[in-house]
Amino acid sequence: MDMTTAAQPTRATPDDSALLRATLRFDAWGTGLFGVFMLIGGGWLAEPLGLPVAWSVAFGIAMLGGAASLGLIAGYPQIPARLGGTVVAGNSVFCVALLVLAVADVLPLTAAGTAFLVLGAVIVAVFAVAEFRGLRRSLILRSR
């Protein structure tokens, strides 16, 4: 049997993860910029939103860490499915956490603060859905 005609294992190409990679990069940049905004603007946001400065700082730091993680994952030559799934799950959990904070009366939020957290949850949900679609697409392309 000629080895050149033998069935070769299917290899994923770098384009398999193109949609997921682009979404992760966009998410990383947006998350990072918003993290900086929360750190710099925490004092300014406290009164109109009712969001304590300590929470703004904590959110800002967490967002910078998340942005760095997203950027690292997006930089993989081929994004592992488990990391893509972790990002989707993490964004989903963060979305729910923002909604809970918005309605659970844990923070002294104003109406604008509640709207701010709900809007944040919607944005995170959009990223979760886009990343899920990118992950699903990359898995479909890899299986061909």
UniProtKB/TrEMBL annotation:
Transmembrane segments: 26-46, 52-76, 83-104, 110-132
Name by which UniProt lists this protein: Uncharacterized protein
Source organism (scientific name): Actinoalloteichus hymeniacidonis
Key words, A-Z: Membrane, Transmembrane, Transmembrane helix
